[in-house]
Write a structure and sequence with these properties.
The structure holds two protein chains of two kinds.
Chain A lengths: L1 H9 L3 H31 L5 H10 L5 E4 L2 H4 L4 H8 L3 E3 L7 H14 L4 E5 L9 H5 L15 H4 L6 H4 L11 H7 L3 H5 L18 E4 L8 H16 L3 E6 L4 E4 L3 H12 L3 E4 L4 H4 L5 E3 L2 E2 L1 H18 L1
Parallel strand pairs in A: 1-2, 1-3, 3-5, 4-6, 5-7
Antiparallel strand pairs in A: 8-9
Helix pairs in contact in A: 3-6, 5-15, 6-12, 12-13
Chain B lengths: L5 H16 L5 H14 L6 H20 L5 H40 L20 H16 L9 H9 L1 H4 L7 H9 L6 H33 L7 H32 L17 H7 L2 H18 L5 H18 L4 H19 L1 H10 L2 H24 L3 H13 L9 H23 L12 H18 L13
Helix pairs in contact in B: 1-2, 2-6, 3-4, 3-5, 3-6, 4-5, 6-8, 9-10, 9-18, 9-19, 10-16, 10-17, 12-13, 13-14, 14-16, 16-17
The chains are: A alpha/beta, B mainly alpha.
Chain lengths: 316, 482
């Protein structure tokens, strides 16, 4: 075999090709490193925008209370009420459209620095459903791969080849060019988009309540269920008071969502409070508290946040 | 295994390395083995269908050549029928039974079961093997050439299998000709630096077109056209124009990669695109778009039809246009939308055929630049309109989309400005490259610059652009489904 290989590399053209490829690779790696480092620099000095909030959640917040979840966390839990009534600092680390992998990635980043006193984890219908897009969305955590070893386990779930792709310095910032650029300007800051991570919704829903059936079974993702378990275990290990919450919906349901049932069961197994507002009459009978059927508006967020705090104060 | 995936690149690198280790006369065996592996990677059982096609084609072609002359036609017809029957069964059986059932259902519903829903009980649970249309067309082309006496039947089934299964082209073409590939399989192909260099450059360019342009555009296109009922005419118009560029970048990107992969191995495949979006008429467009398929149809479909109806005079051309393009449209898939797409091409080609002299006279009166601009806008516009049928799931949906374009006013849908910005940058870059190649080809050339550094910086730029703006979670190539 070694004889054949020697023959090949000494043949005319092979060595020339190897030299040219090596030179090209050096050039490519150099450019990749320079541009990637520049993107990294810009990413971590953002002062506003979605990427900034993720970065702030992982690297900066020291809030006593953290709120985790997707859009239903980000747009429904107003930290101001939590701070005023519980006398502790609060930050909403929820991010629209993100699956449970994201919450767990952020939690790992936070736990490396400190242990919050209280965490609210918002769980929604279908949270454990199997969807490829959930893995694609782990992409927003890629910038942390290099510097946050504790988040790598989650990030590597994105695809079997993620580790290989992450050898590039640019790849973690794929598709973020314009977002990072805007995040370095005052554009978003001037818009006052968020209040400690909370983004209020101003719309008002005016439509009769719909009925949604959960009788059809969805394929569940065991990775998501395992990550949910890990989230609970890590909170318990770090002595964090964890509340798992299913926030209000403006819909009647036939049957129960399988994901919610599983989430409830696992919470109970671990003696974690699971607070369910999905069938709360106050919200089911008042469409004007909603922006759409799954998100309360600013008025709804005020009522919901306070209702949740009342519940916590009773429990405490 | 799609060309843009990491498993494919791992496969290709190891394949190409071993390819050049193999003794020259056995390289085709290595190509065949690798093509089989490539094809069977996702669904190993579909090879049975393709193997049947290969065997029947090989056997009948040999019998046509070596058997008595009166047996030529029966063997030819048998092979053609088997090829077409398999294609029709896997690709069109459900379409035909559903169409018949829908028609009878209308009658039954009216007469016996007013309002009662029906479902087609004859639906078959079959999935067409990947690349079936391409393999079938190449096999049919091979048989026709032997029947016409233009080509010798291949005695070695291994060579014929390698030609039909050659992995760079099996899934989505180009639709190759036996006389183009078989001699290359038997040629002495030493290691050639230039071939590898040209091949790798084509692969990078194809990858760029797919990941940076096509898949980026598909985000907006899918968001709007999949929910056209919720979008304004302006948004739909933008999505429809984007779809033209998406389709072009996707399909030509795939083709560039197929050509590049073949080039690395020392093979030349047929060109499939020649800057079609700069064509000045639909007639010219079809000479530049999916060339290997349109020339296949021209040679084996259009010309025989036009000749057989030559008594009709000028109408034989019109007849041949319509039959050819309706079949070409239908080749894309079992849906009436593709038939309408083909008919629209036939219609405009007929118009252009009858007005060719008038248009030529008119062109003389218009400055060439203006003439080019008007021609290109018309061509892209008409193609975009016909692509609405190509993309929609039904003719009814297509008509709704067209109606909304002209009747529903409203704001432009921009959920994520980044997508629009990257999309526009991608289109701008593609247009720049195409215009440069079409009109200023001799001007400063970056990709083939004599300075190593400039040349390589360009290809580095393409790779870096893929990392910066490429869509890594995008889907398959559009033409894989055909």
């Amino acid at each position: 075999m070694s004889k054949i290989l020697t023959q090949i590399v000494t043949q005319r053209g092979y060595l020339y090709l190897l030299k040219k490829l090596a030179a090209f690779m050096v050039l490519f790696i150099l450019f990749d490193f320079i541009i990637g480092s520049f993107f990294r620099y810009l990413y971590f000095r953002q002062t506003s925008g979605w990427e900034f909030r993720t970065k702030y959640s992982v690297e900066d917040t020291r809030a006593d209370i953290l709120i985790f979840g997707a859009s239903r966390a980000q747009q429904q839990y107003n930290p101001i009420f939590f701070e005023e009534r519980l006398h502790q600092t609060c930050y909403n680390v929820g991010r629209d459209g993100q699956p449970i992998f994201y919450y767990y990635g952020i939690l790992n980043g936070v736990l490396r620095r400190y242990s919050p006193k209280m965490i609210f984890l918002d769980i929604e219908n279908g949270v454990f459903n199997s969807e490829q897009s959930s893995y694609d969305r782990i992409g927003v955590l890629l910038p942390f791969y290099k510097t946050h070893a504790e988040m790598r386990q989650v990030i590597e779930l994105k695809s079997p080849y993620e580790k290989m792709k992450l050898q590039s310095s640019i790849y973690p910032f794929n598709s973020l060019l314009f977002k990072i650029a805007v995040g370095n300007t005052k554009f978003n800051k001037n818009r006052n988009e968020d209040i400690k991570g909370y983004i209020p919704l101003s719309g008002e829903l005016h439509e009769p309540i719909r009925t949604v059936s959960f009788l059809n079974q969805h394929v569940l993702d065991t990775n998501k269920i395992n990550v949910y378990r890990s989230f609970i275990n890590d909170c318990i290990k770090h002595h964090i008071k964890l509340y798992i919450v299913c926030s209000p919906y403006y819909m009647k349901t036939i049957g129960t969502d399988t994901s919610i049932s599983i989430a409830k069961k696992i919470a109970h197994e671990n003696n974690v409070d699971f607070i369910d507002y999905s069938k709360d009459e106050l919200f089911l009978t008042n469409s004007t508290l909603f922006d759409d059927t799954v998100h309360v508006n600013v008025a709804g967020a005020r009522i919901f946040s306070n209702k949740l705090i009342d519940n916590i104060l009773v429990k405490e | 295994m799609i060309f843009t995936s990491i498993p494919f690149f791992l496969f290709f690198i190891s394949f190409a390395f071993l390819y050049y280790i193999f003794p020259l006369r056995f390289r085709w065996v290595w190509i065949l083995a690798s093509s089989l592996f490539f094809y069977m990677y996702g669904n190993p059982y579909s090879i049975i269908i393709i193997a049947s096609i290969i065997f029947v084609t090989w056997f009948c072609a040999l019998r046509m050549e070596k058997g008595p002359s009166e047996k030529v036609t029966p063997y030819f017809l048998f092979a053609i029928i088997i090829n077409i029957a398999l294609l029709v069964f896997f690709k069109y059986a459900n379409f035909f039974t559903s169409t018949v059932f829908d028609l009878t259902n209308i009658v039954n519903t009216q007469v016996f079961h007013a309002g009662a829903p029906y479902s087609n009980p004859f639906i078959l649970n079959v999935i067409a093997p990947l690349g079936l249309s391409y393999v079938t067309f190449q096999a049919i082309g091979y048989l026709i050439e032997i029947k016409r006496g233009n080509h010798k039947a291949e005695g070695n089934i291994g060579y014929l299998s390698t030609f039909l299964l050659f992995f760079p082209k099996i899934i989505a073409g180009p639709v190759e000709r036996a006389h183009h590939i078989l001699p290359q399989l038997k040629q002495y192909k030493p290691f050639n630096y230039d071939n590898i260099s040209k091949g790798l450059k084509l692969i990078i360019w194809g990858l760029f077109k797919k990941l940076v342009i096509a898949d980026r555009l598909s985000i907006y296109v899918d968001a709007v056209l999949d929910n056209a009922g919720h979008h304004s005419g302006t948004s739909i118009s933008i999505a429809v124009i984007f779809y033209v560029f998406q389709m072009y970048a996707d399909f030509s990107g795939y083709t560039d990669m197929a050509l590049g992969i073949s080039k690395v191995l020392g093979f030349d495949l047929l060109q499939n695109f020649n800057r079609p979006l700069l064509a000045k008429s639909i007639t010219e467009f079809w000479r530049k778009w999916h060339i290997s398929l349109s020339t296949w149809f021209a040679d084996y479909f259009y010309t025989p039809i036009a000749i057989s109806k030559r008594d009709w005079g000028i109408w034989s051309v019109v007849y041949a246009f319509f039959i050819t393009f309706i079949t070409l449209g239908f080749w894309h898939g079992a849906n009436w939308t593709f038939v309408v797409f083909g008919a629209l091409q036939g219609f405009i080609l007929t118009i252009e055929f009858f007005t060719r002299k008038a248009r030529k006279n008119m062109r003389k009166k218009i400055p060439p630049l203006l003439n080019n601009i008007i021609g290109t806008i018309f061509t892209v516009g008409y193609f975009a309109l016909s692509l609405i049928f190509f993309r929609a799931s039904s003719v009814k949906d297509s008509l709704i989309i067209i109606r909304r374009i002209f009747t529903i006013k409203g704001p432009v849908y921009i959920e994520n400005p980044t997508i629009i910005l990257f999309s526009l940058l991608g289109i701008f870059f593609l247009a720049l490259i195409e215009l440069k190649r079409e009109y200023f080809d001799t001007l400063f050339n970056i990709s083939t610059n004599r300075h190593w550094f400039i040349r390589n910086c360009y290809y580095c730029f393409l790779l870096l652009a893929i990392l910066i703006a490429g869509v890594f979670d995008g889907g398959e190539f559009i033409y894989f489904q055909f």
